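User: Hi! I'm working on a homework problem where we have to compare a predicted structure to a textbook description. Could you give me the structure for the chain below?
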Amino acid sequence: EQFIRQEYWTIDADLTQKSQPFSAKLSRLNDVKVEQFTITNEDQAMAAERDLISAANGQLVVSKVEKKQRKRNPAAPLITSTLQQEAARKLGFSTRKTMQIAQQLYEGVDLGSGPVGLITYMRTDSVHLADEAVTELREVITERYGKDNLPDAPRTFKTKSKNAQEAHEAIRPTSARIVPLEIKQHLSPDQNKLYDLIWKRTVACQMIHATLNTVAIDFACGDKSTFRATGSSVHHAGFMAVYLESKDDETAGSDKDEKLLPPMEEGDIIPLIAIRPEQHFTEPPPRYTEASLVKALEEHGIGRPSTYASIISTLLNREYAELENKRFFPTDIGKIVNNFLTNHFTDYVDYDFTARLEDELDEISRGEKEWVPVMKKFWDPFNALVHDKDESVSREEVIQARELGTDPKSGKPISVRMGRFGPYVQIGTKD
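Assistant: Happy to help. Predicted structure tokens:
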């Protein structure tokens, strides 16, 4: 809400080679590297366009061609947080819905001869896979996708969470041989979607890396300016043939936006169709989705696999935030609660405090600490602070009453306040 937009311009060259149109982005202008805010208004953009058109004289020359191969490794098998994130991005599921359906798959679905548990326990932060599961996955990969998609050795992944409960495995199918398509008729549409996602992610994590061909081509525009085009193509799909991890707010530089370029060599003369200036404005950081909020909770050490969904439900049920177009927006009530807690209970809404207390609770659960001293260390100062604020902070300060003026009939002050059911106007005081 406090974000101030900034104007900037980009300049692209529309080109064609062997009847294939493509574009290149201005990377150097008059021997100066082009950054985001190199060109910040229309006058500068139009002047640059004139200079470039004059220097190009209808054509650009290929000055450099860089070809590389790069490998892309599969993502780790799913844990609670990544399951919730992927289900939100790929399937549009809320965190609560994801956990409800995962619970059904875990408890068992009747496949014709009684209930069968289809996935392992879904509240976990461990990426470990049992040896027998890995062996079966490698057999299934060989049978379904060929030996050239199987790495020489099984892949192992390291759990990021320092308090992960390694007794649990990652979320995986109980048997990789239970293929989603073959049991589709026994599952509800949502169960099938989630099981399909879990099965594919688990199989992909044990497959060979993907190999991508990348190319970057520089085009000289006269002696002092350069345009650059980048492209990529899949040399060997590997795990990407089965599953590709999603990301939040993918930008124009992501893999999916890179295009195939026509073959070119240094010295080639490329016909110029147009120089195209384009105006842009900076965007504020995107508001949280359920997926990105779960990721942020995990990164800050807030909550545990079993509590991510309930944290989000509490925000919505208490109307501290609301979802619009799958993005969280704070409500007026939420802003008041946040301001009050930030101003008066600063230490207790600090990320580090929450993460530290979570760590201590984990230590208690492992028998490494006694619970009474930990709770006493928290409760005594917290209880004292609550009593202090109860006496020293007025109700008007809490609800952030704002005076609008005076009622002409009664002469009493008119104020707007935030109540339980939203804002309201009050004439006079409570007394």
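For your comparison, note the following. Confidence is low (pLDDT under 50) at residues 250-257. Residues 80-204 form a domain with the Topoisomerase I; domain 4 fold (CATH 1.10.290.10). Good luck with the assignment!
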